[in-house]
Design a protein that fits this description.
Layout (H helix, E strand, L loop, with lengths): L24 E7 L3 H12 L4 E5 L25 H14 L10 H4 L7 E2 L4 E2 L4 H14 L4 E3 L10 E3 L2 E6 L5 E9 L5 H5 L4 E3 L4 H4 L20 E3 L2 E6 L3 E2 L22 E2 L5 E2 L13 H7 L14 E3 L3 E3 L22 H24 L5 H8 L2 E3 L19 E3 L7 H4 L8 E5 L3 E3 L3 E4 L5 E4 L2 E3 L4 E4 L13 E2 L8 H7 L2 H21 L8 H10 L21 H12 L7 H10 L5 E3 H13 L8 H9 L7 H5 L7 E3 H14 L8
């Protein structure tokens, strides 16, 4: 099939019917129905406030329902409140045998070590349709009125009385009045229309004493041998698409460039559920010449290279960018934030057709090595996902757009815990992460990449004041997504669990401030903290996990066993998965025992599909010569049990001995 140009900003959508007696003036108007906006609206309703949720696009949930199923969670211990409830509801869903249509839970669990936390009943990896069902249930139970296709009229200023917003107007002329407002959009459209200060792009490192901000050049060795010209070695032939003729400036300086966007695709290799990705109407193989040159002369495959195949339940994936040349549409995100609705529609379609063309190119261009073409061709869009949108995600991954300049600016210093934050409302814990911003040819004619960084950190607190505009600019608006942060710090903050927690915090503050008869800027933090804690928020730093620190390198036999088990289809071909298993096998390491137990059961089920628990699995494997300490593992069936590295290494080596790793399934 050929995809229709799905332009979310242009869809004519029905508005959900509103309950009788809907107020003329809401306590809270939430603009933006992504997961943060949903959390804000649900929280306000649970607190007894009148609330309306306005989503400019065609569906609720944003990236959480729009393909990002492999949650970027960081430190799982700091996920609280509605975020924890969401992932627990997902976990409850996958406890049902009826949820597993194309594989069993037992087969799925060992494929990636980050997919489930049994001790806290949280399922971090999920199908888009399951996330949609959970989001819809939260909204329905809270009786939140929802308007889809409710686009703000950005050509006019927001109505206000002094520093207070009073109403917003949509492009269809409808007006929504409120006592408080939340901008939960990925773009910060409401804050901009309200005249609130913001920035786009990257600040200079010198502005806040940072090291990861501003223009950043990747080492030339990372693109060595990849020529930037249309005809390799011939500058007169011109530069390849999206390669700039020079560097954007000096390293560390401020720059308006924005990290690349992409789509998080839900793919499958199940033939009866697979929709082929067809050649787009704008297909230009020159767009993929850099990818072709980057794979020349070396073995590559989807998963480890080209694009990710992070396993979701039921033989599906969350497919994301992988490396320098992949699904990220580098160089075409910078104009998104300030673009008109019409311009965004065109950019959305351009991103879609670039991505379709990439998969078509890798599966059909004769210059691509035949094994790569064959492997890429196995994958297609999941037929039972995004059925209203041609099986394509409705949500573009807008990693970053506007960032407010508010009462407090979260910086890299906060992320490195070099500051004291007296008013935390949530924690961020994922790595400081920016995707590439652009390609350019340097003065020596070499291809260079700039903008990317990835640096692990510990969980750090996020100040309530970062949700607040400067009071003189707006005193009844809160911003949980495009909050006040630098580009460097936003690289960790911009994760969906964090947005959910910040959305809940913003709504809580708005409701409590109204009840106190004061603006959110004057709300005593002690009152906010008390309510957030009562609703399950995590507001104190988790203890350092010194126990279980590895004392030595990965045993070579265990490392080889991990590779063998991946080729046998037990483990996902993803760096995070394979690295986690290797680390779990290091001497002195401690890991979730449930993960190894799941692997033991999955291995036994290759011989006997009736195996449904550890004792039976151990018997089946023992009959085939696998020597495992049955008493040790049977004592570790509690969800909060841990396993030591030596025991995990034995499991890996023993299982690899009976599975030679010749029949990989992805």
């Amino acid at each position: 099939m050929r995809f229709l140009p799905v332009l979310p900003v242009a869809l004519l959508l029905p508005v959900l019917s509103l309950p009788a007696g809907e107020p003329v003036v809401y306590d809270l108007v939430v603009y933006g129905g992504n997961a943060a906006g949903v959390a804000a609206a649900v929280q306000a309703s649970r607190l007894g406030a009148s609330v309306v949720l306005l989503e400019p696009g065609p569906a609720l949930g944003g990236l959480t329902t729009g393909g990002l199923g492999a949650t970027d969670v960081g430190d799982k211990r700091v996920v609280g409140g509605l975020a924890r409830e969401f992932y627990q509801r997902v976990h409850d869903h996958y406890q049902k045998p009826s949820a597993w249509l194309r594989e069993t839970r037992a087969d799925y669990l060992p494929r990636h070590p980050l997919n489930v936390t049994e001790a806290t009943r949280q399922h971090w990896f999920f199908e888009p349709r399951v996330a949609t069902a959970v989001i819809d249930a939260l909204v329905r139970e809270a009786a939140v009125p929802v308007h889809l296709g409710a686009r703000l009229d950005r050509s006019r200023r927001v109505e206000r009385s002094g520093a207070r917003l009073t109403s917003i107007t949509l492009v269809d002329g409808r007006v929504f009045r409120g006592r408080s407002f939340i901008d939960a959009t990925y773009e910060g459209d409401l804050l901009a229309a309200a005249g609130v200060s913001y920035t786009i792009g990257r600040e200079a490192n010198s502005l806040h004493g940072e090291s990861l901000n501003g223009i950043r050049f990747l080492a030339p060795e990372q693109t060595a041998g990849i020529d930037p010209y249309v005809r390799a070695g011939d500058p007169s032939s011109g530069l390849l698409p999206r390669v700039a003729p020079r560097a954007p400036g000096r390293e560390g300086d401020a720059d308006p460039g924005v990290q690349a966007y992409n789509f998080r695709l839900c793919l499958t290799d199940v033939p009866e559920n697979r929709v082929p990705i067809e050649r787009p109407r704008s297909y230009d193989p020159l767009q993929y010449e850099l990818i072709l040159r980057s794979i020349s002369g070396r073995p590559v495959a989807p998963g480890p290279q080209l694009f990710t195949l992070t396993p979701m339940p039921n033989r599906k994936t969350d497919t994301n960018n992988r490396g320098i040349f992949s699904t990220d549409y580098v160089g075409r995100s910078t104009g998104w934030a300030e673009a008109s609705d019409e311009e965004r529609g065109k950019l959305w379609l351009e991103h879609q057709e670039y991505t379709q063309g990439l998969f078509w190119f890798l599966a059909h261009d004769p210059r691509v090595p035949e094994p790569v073409r064959r492997e890429v061709g196995r994958w297609g869009l999941a037929k039972d996902e995004f059925t209203a949108f041609g099986h394509w995600p409705f949500q573009l991954y807008v990693r970053e757009a506007r960032r407010m300049r508010g009462e407090y600016v979260i910086t890299e210093l906060d992320a490195r815990r070099r500051t004291t934050v007296p008013d935390p409302v949530a924690f961020a814990s994922y790595a400081l992460d920016s995707h590439a911003v652009g390609y350019f040819a340097d003065s020596e004619g070499r291809l260079r990449v700039e903008g990317a960084f990835l640096e692990n950190i510990r969980a750090f607190p996020l100040s309530y004041r970062a949700l607040l505009p400067r009071r003189a600019e707006a005193e009844n608006l809160l911003v949980p997504v495009c909050l006040s942060a630098t580009h460097a710090a936003y690289g960790s903050v911009r994760m969906e669990p964090v947005f959910i927690m910040l959305g809940q915090a913003a709504a809580t503050a708005a409701v409590l401030a109204q009840r106190a008869g004061r603006p959110p800027h004057e709300l005593p933090y002690a009152q906010l903290r008390e309510r957030l804690l009562a609703d399950g928020a995590v507001l104190t730093s988790p203890r350092s996990e010194s126990a279980g620190a590895p004392r030595g390198p990965v045993p070579p036999a265990a490392a080889a066993a991990v590779d063998s088990l991946q080729r046998s289809g037990f483990l996902a071909a993803a760096d995070a998965s394979l690295s986690a298993w290797r680390n779990a096998a290091r001497p002195g390491a401690e890991s979730e025992a449930a993960r190894s137990v799941a692997l033991i059961i999955a291995a036994a089920r290759r011989f006997d599909r009736t195996v449904d628990g550890l004792p039976a699995a151990l018997r089946v494997l023992a009959a085939r010569g696998v020597r495992l300490d049955a008493a040790y593992w049977e004592a570790r069936q509690r969800p909060d049990s841990t396993a030591d590295g030596d025991a995990v290494a034995v499991v890996l080596v023993e299982l690899a001995g009976i599975f030679p790793g010749k029949t990989g399934s992805g």
